[in-house]
Model the fold of this input.
Amino acid sequence: MQHWFKMLLLSCCVMLGACSDPQPVPVEVPEDVSAVTEGFLDALRRGDMDAAGAFVSASSQQYLTDDFAGADAFKPAKAMKPLVYVSDTELFETRYYNKARVVYGVKQDEGWQTIVLQLYWLDGEAIEIDDWSFADNGPPPPEIGAQRVFLKYMPLFLIVMAISAAAALAVVVWIAKRKPQIIAPDSNPAKRETASTSSTHDA
Done:
C-alpha cells in the first residue's frame, strides 16, 4: 500500500510539471491540403516567390511579394506545425465549393510565430491559398490559447480524480479490516443456527 501511495505521489509530481508550459498538439491535415500549405511554407523559407506563387490564387498574387519578399520579410520557422484545421463545403450551383483554414505555429522565446492560411477551391480544380495572416513573437491564436488552457488544467483534474480514487480505496480497505461481516457476510447462516441450537440442548 505504501509503495502504491509513493507511485501516486510521483505521478502527481510529473503531471504538475506538465502543467507549467503545455504545448498544443499538432493536428492532421488532409494530404491534398497539406501538399499546398507545406509547399507554400517551404517556398517562403527559401525566399522563392515564384514557387510560392504557384500555390496562390490569381486574386492574391499581387500581395505575395509585398508581404513575403525582402531580407526582413516574414520567414516561417521550420519547426512550425499545423495546430488548427477547419474546413467547410457548400453547394455552388452544381458544384461543391470548399474552403479550409490552417493555422501553423511554433512557440518562440518572446511569443508565438504563427501563420494562418485560407484556402478555397471548387471540386475538380486546384486547391489555392487565397488569403493569409502572420505574426512574429505575438500571442497565440484563440484556438491555440483555448487548447493550452485545456492542456494546462487537465493534469490537475486527473490528480483530483486519482486522489479521490485513492481515498475511496483506502475507505474500502479500512472497512474490510474493521468490519469483515459487512464485506463478507456469513455464507451459511442455517448451519450457524443449527450449531447454536445443539449447544443449547447440550446444556
Remarks:
- The mean pLDDT is 78.
- The longest helix spans residues 142-178.
